Every structure is written in structure tokens, then in C-alpha cells.
């Protein structure tokens, strides 16, 4: 719980009263490697904070292939946020890529706290600005303009994440086949 509060305070300082209210709605949850945390088609009811482990956020294409959109390491917030906001079933799955320990909190109860606690609302704004605008915008542009090789190098530059991913996770994230990924890796070694 303290890791979650510490991470929230990095975005905006929360009062003791707000932190006490958050403590009441959070609960630790553990999931084993390959266990689904959220299944596409289900309603997303929770936000998650990753204490330990690694999560994958993906959807299936029409042929049933996994397409990873994002990975969430320690100290990350994870949810099917669009599904929560729109109150629709999620288009995405969230899976434990390693054994994970999460802090889980109800989206409904969190929204109630955001209305009651101004500092929590300011945290939410700061978080969304940094992670859904500043961080996400370059990713969207890169998908349109960068080659798979350039995106591979960018992923490779984040060694803490890269070393934890399997080759099929990387290929899926880049939108290439395992054979194409092998060619990219071979070309970069030369």
C-alpha cells in the first residue's frame, strides 16, 4: 500500500485524509504467471497498481493472434481505462506475465473519492496528462512512422523491461512475426 501511495504522491501530494480513504478501498491481490486479471468482453471494475511482477495488456486479432499494446512493470498503474470510463466491456485482456502482487481498488469507489478529495482529482489529472497524453502520443506517432527495427531499438533501450520479455511478446508488441524479429536481431548484430 505504501508503494502505491508513494507513487501517487509523485504526481500530486495527497493529504493524510485522502491517503486514509484510499487505504480503505485498496486490497492486495496476487496472480500467478499466465493468469488472466481481466478478460476481453468482461466489464472492467478495478484499477491495479503493480507492486511486483509484470503485466501484459493485449487483444486478439481476427485470427486469434495476441497483439500486445503495453507492458506494466512495478510501480505502474494498470486498467482497461476506456472500458471503465465508457462503462462498456473491455476490448483488452490483462495477463500476468510473471507472478504478480497488485493493489486492487474499485473504479467506482475511486471515482467517489475523486469527487470528495480535491487532491486526488489533481493526482488523477496529473497522471492522465503524463501517461495518456505526454507518454502515449509519441507511441502512436512511432507506430505510423517508425520501422519495426526502430521500435525494437526503442524497446531494447528499456533494459529493465526488455530482459523480462519473451521473444514472442516482443514480436507481438512490434507487430511482426517471430521470423521477422529474428531477421531484425540478426541485422542489428552485424
UniProtKB/TrEMBL annotation:
Pfam family, one: cNMP_binding
InterPro entries in alphabetical order: cNMP-bd_dom (IPR000595), cNMP-bd_dom_sf (IPR018490), RmlC-like_jellyroll (IPR014710)
Domain Cyclic nucleotide-binding residue range list: 10-114
Gene3D superfamilies: Jelly Rolls (2.60.120.10)
Source organism, top-level taxon: Bacteria
Listed name of the protein: Crp/Fnr family transcriptional regulator
Amino acid at each position: 500500500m505504501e508503494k502505491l501511495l508513494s507513487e501517487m504522491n509523485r504526481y500530486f501530494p495527497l493529504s493524510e485524509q485522502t491517503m486514509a480513504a484510499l487505504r480503505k478501498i485498496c486490497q492486495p491481490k496476487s496472480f500467478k504467471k499466465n493468469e488472466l486479471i481481466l478478460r476481453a468482453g468482461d466489464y472492467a471494475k478495478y484499477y491495479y497498481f503493480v507492486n511486483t511482477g509484470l503485466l501484459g495488456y493485449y487483444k486478439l486479432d481476427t485470427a486469434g493472434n495476441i497483439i500486445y499494446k503495453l507492458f506494466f512493470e512495478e510501480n505502474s498503474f494498470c486498467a482497461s481505462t476506456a472500458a471503465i470510463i465508457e462503462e462498456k466491456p473491455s476490448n483488452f485482456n490483462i495477463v500476468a506475465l510473471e507472478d504478480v502482487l497488485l493493489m486492487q481498488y474499485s473504479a467506482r469507489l475511486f471515482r467517489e473519492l475523486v469527487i470528495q478529495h480535491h487532491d486526488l482529482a489533481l493526482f488523477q489529472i496529473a497522471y492522465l496528462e503524463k501517461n495518456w497524453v505526454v507518454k502515449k502520443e509519441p507511441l502512436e506517432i512511432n507506430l505510423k512512422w517508425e520501422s519495426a527495427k526502430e521500435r525494437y531499438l526503442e524497446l531494447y533501450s528499456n533494459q529493465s523491461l526488455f530482459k523480462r520479455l519473451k521473444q514472442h511478446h516482443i514480436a507481438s508488441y512490434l507487430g511482426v512475426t517471430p521470423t521477422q524479429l529474428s531477421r531484425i536481431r540478426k541485422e542489428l548484430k552485424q
